[in-house]
Write a structure and sequence with these properties.
This protein is α+β, with helices and mostly antiparallel strands and about 270 residues long. The protein contains six helices and 15 strands. Strand 8 and strand 9 form a beta hairpin. Bound molecules: zinc ion (ZN).
Length: about 270
C-alpha cells in the first residue's frame, strides 16, 4: 500500500509519497509554515491571485520548489477555472505561470506530462488535488477537483487522457487524493446534494446527513469514480486530513471566508539515474 508521509526540509513541511519517489516520481503538497507572507496569508502562501504581495509569493514558491528538489523555472501552472479541460505539457511550457498568473495555461484544471523535470503545479484552499503516476509508461498528471470539477468528473477524464494520449493502462496507474475539505465540513444545500446524488447514483455514501444538513464527501466520490475507471485498490489512497479542520497546517477558503492563501501541489518525473 502506498503511504503518504509528512516530510520536512529547510523549514518547509510537505506531504509526500516515498514509495512513488522510489519508483520515479516526486509528489508533494505544501503546508502553511516556512514562508514569508503576513496574515492572513501566513506564511507559505503559494497563490499569486489572492491579494498577497507577489514578491512574497514568489519567494515562497522558490522555497517550496527548492525543498522538493526543483527551481521556479521548472514549474508549470494552469489557471484553474473549475472546468474539465486537460492540458498536455512538454518542455516548451516550463515556467508558465510560475512568476505571474497571466502566463499560466488558460482554461485548464488538469495537466499531464511525460517530460522529466517539469513540475506540474496546482493551488488549493479546500478543493481536492488528485495526483496520478504511471511508473510503466513514465507519465504523471495532476487534477484540480473542487465540487464543480468533481461533478464534471475531471479526475476520470485525466485518467482517460493518460490512456488515450500516452497509452497508459489504468491497472498500472497510481493515484493519490490529497488533502482537501472533508465531509466533516463540506455542508451543501439541498439542491446541490440532489444533483450530486443524481450524477453519482451508482456510488455509495457520498452524502452524509447530520442535524438536518447535507455534507458531500468529495474525496470518497473521486475515490469511487477512479476505482470504477479501473485503478486498483492498492494503487489508490486518500489523505484523510481536512483543510478546513486543520488551521495550523492548511489554508481553507470556507473556514477563512475567502480571505486566505493557497497550498501548492506538485508532481514531477525524476530523471533516471
Ligand atoms: Zn473538516
Amino acid at each position: 500500500m502506498q503511504d503518504w508521509h509528512w516530510q520536512q526540509k529547510w523549514g518547509i513541511s510537505y506531504i509526500t509519497i516515498p514509495e512513488w519517489a522510489d519508483m520515479g516520481a516526486l509528489a508533494a503538497f505544501s503546508a502553511r509554515s516556512g514562508g514569508i507572507s503576513y496574515m492572513p496569508f501566513d506564511s507559505l502562501n503559494m497563490g499569486l491571485h489572492v491579494g498577497d504581495n507577489p514578491h512574497h509569493v514568489i519567494e515562497n514558491r522558490k522555497r517550496f520548489m527548492l525543498a522538493t528538489g526543483g527551481q521556479l523555472e521548472q514549474m508549470v501552472c494552469c489557471q484553474q477555472v473549475h472546468g474539465d479541460r486537460i492540458k498536455l505539457i512538454n518542455h516548451s511550457h516550463a515556467g508558465l505561470g510560475a512568476k505571474e498568473m497571466k502566463t499560466a495555461i488558460g482554461d485548464s484544471d488538469a495537466m499531464i506530462t511525460n517530460v522529466p523535470g517539469i513540475f506540474l503545479t496546482t493551488f488549493y484552499a479546500d478543493c481536492i488535488p488528485v495526483y496520478f503516476f504511471d511508473p510503466v509508461k513514465r507519465v504523471v498528471a495532476l487534477a484540480h477537483s473542487g465540487w464543480k470539477g468533481t461533478m464534471l468528473r475531471i479526475a476520470e477524464k485525466t485518467l482517460q487522457s493518460m490512456t488515450e494520449e500516452y497509452k497508459c493502462k489504468p491497472k498500472d496507474i497510481r493515484s493519490f487524493i490529497g488533502p482537501g475539505i472533508g465531509s466533516c465540513c463540506f455542508a451543501i444545500d439541498g439542491s446541490l446534494a440532489d444533483k450530486a446524488i443524481r450524477e453519482f447514483d451508482s456510488l455509495s455514501d457520498i452524502i452524509r446527513y447530520n442535524n438536518g444538513k447535507q455534507y458531500w464527501d468529495l474525496p470518497a466520490t473521486i475515490y469511487q469514480c477512479l476505482i470504477k475507471a479501473g485503478i486498483e485498490n492498492n494503487h489508490l489512497n486518500i489523505c484523510p486530513l481536512c483543510t478546513c479542520c486543520n488551521a495550523d497546517y492548511f489554508y481553507s477558503f470556507r473556514r477563512d471566508k475567502g480571505n486566505t492563501g493557497r497550498m501548492g501541489a506538485v508532481i514531477t518525473l525524476l530523471e533516471r539515474n
